[in-house]
Amino acid sequence: MLAIVALSSMCLPLAKASAETESITAANSSINNAFGNVLAAQKAGGNVTQLLAQMNIAGSLLTQAISSYNAGNLANVTLEADNAHSIAEQVNSNAITLKNESEIASRNNLLIYLIFSISCSLILTAVLMLFWRHIKHSYVKKLPGLRPKGV
Amino acid sequence: MSRIQLSNYRIILITIGLIGVLLFASPTIVLLVKLPPGQEYSEIYLLGPDHDLSNLPFNIEPNVSYLLYLGVVNNLKSAGYYSCLTKFGNDSTLLPNQTLGSPSSLPSLYEYNVFLDDGATWETPFTFQIDTSNFANNTSQVSGININGIDYPVTLTSAWDSNKTGYYYSFFVELWLFNGTQGVSQYNDRFVSLILNMTQ
After folding, report:
1. Which of A26, A119, A138, B101 is the S-S candidate for B189 at Cβ 3.0 to 4.6 Å?
2. Does residue A25 form part of some domain?
3. Could you tell me if B183 lies within 8 Å of chain A, comparing CB atoms?
4. β pairing state of B150-152 and B139-147
5. Averaged over A27-52, what is the pLDDT?
């Protein structure tokens, strides 16, 4: 019985440390994942300032968790890592939404600019062609009145 | 209106047409053509208690708290996820290898995780304090360091350096950057360090 108690008391800190490690790993993984999607949202043209502010809160919690863990102080490690994990999950979801919205907005913008460029170019070409026809017409009308020099 | 004047008109109209088409197409070209972003890099710096390079700690005593400012600047042309790993070693500890671009093998103590937008700067004050130090047989032994109020049990010894007359330790901060393509944090080949002389 004494041996079991001694063994369990020896194993308990290890099991606890393992739980802390798992929490930190999960938080780290979700933060990495969330940041990957924040980058994708920014690349798609989204404004990620708000998301980065939230990521910094998660990063700060992860800082506390890892720094305490490295010092062997396991008291609040799981709580801080889990909080960082849940914030990162929320940011991840918002980042995916922002990325999708930004991609649609970028596509629409491109379409609008493309229509603008093509239609304006066509209108300009048509106006210039009309102007050219007008000049040419005036020139042809004046041709019969012109005589070669020296005749 | 002469024949030469008419051909001049044609050239002028074609030129106006081409310039106009180019102008009208420019908003679309800007969206489609991505110009090279320029040099992408990050910065890390360490400042003394007066927010400059003066009064950086060198001769340190046990149980005295030293204030420093740590900063990171993002010039990556996109958001960056940085980790600053603080490490403490003695005079024989290998610092990060700048030729190979590899970090120090020492375990990290306090660790910052920061997210910065392009062009943004992050700066934080931080304190460190050597908890206890023993001197015997021309050797100094440190048994703990406190960073930002957290005690880290480290056992390090430093032999008396007769050339530089002191017991030397090194405190440094490595900059790590998250690689979005590979999905992992990697050492960014940048660190800031302090050489510390332990005094009694």
Report:
1. B101
2. yes
3. yes
4. antiparallel
5. 94
What is B79-117 written as a DSSP string? -EEEEEEEEEEETTSPPPBTTTTB--SSPP-SEEEEEE-
What are the structure tokens assigned to A73, written together? Answer: 């102080």
Please tell me whether the interface predicted TM-score (ipTM) of this complex is above 0.90.
Answer: no
Mean pLDDT, rounded, of chain B = 90
Looking at residue A11, its pLDDT comes to 42
A116:B78 CB<8 A:
no
pLDDT tier, A118 (very low <50, low <70, confident <90, very high otherwise): very high
Burial environment of residue A1 by CB neighbours within 10 A (0 to 12, 13 to 18, 19 or more) = exposed
**Has residue A5 been placed in a domain?**
no
B109 at interface of A, judged by CB pairs closer than 8 A: yes
Q: Answer yes or no: do B117 and A70 touch at CB < 8 A.
A: no
- Give the global pTM: 0.81
Q: Which domain holds residue A57?
A: 16-117
Number of structural domains chain A divides into? 1
Residue of B24, B108, B178 lying closest to A70 (CB–CB): B108
Mutate to test the interface with A, among B3, B6, B26, B28 (most CBs of A within 10 A): B28
Residue A125 CA to chain centroid, in angstroms? 39
| Cβ–Cβ < 8 Å for A71, B150 | yes
Helices A2-43, A77-142: crossing angle, 10 deg rounding: 10
Choose the closest CB to B31 out of A60, A70, A109.
A109
Burial class, B191, CB count within 10 angstroms (exposed 0-12 / middle 13-18 / buried 19+): buried
Q: For residue A39, which residues of chain B lie inside 8 Å, CB to CB? A: 78-79, 180
Specify if A62 maps to a domain. Answer: yes
When mean pLDDT is compared across A39-43, A62-66, B109-113, B137-141, the lowest value belongs to B137-141
Task: Indicate if the pLDDT at residue B10 is higher than 70.
Answer: yes
Q: Does A69 touch chain B (CB under 8 A)?
A: no
B9–A132: do the CB atoms touch at under 8 Å? yes
How distant is the Cα of A133 from the closest Cα of chain B, in angstroms?
A: 10
CA distance B113 to chain A (A): 5
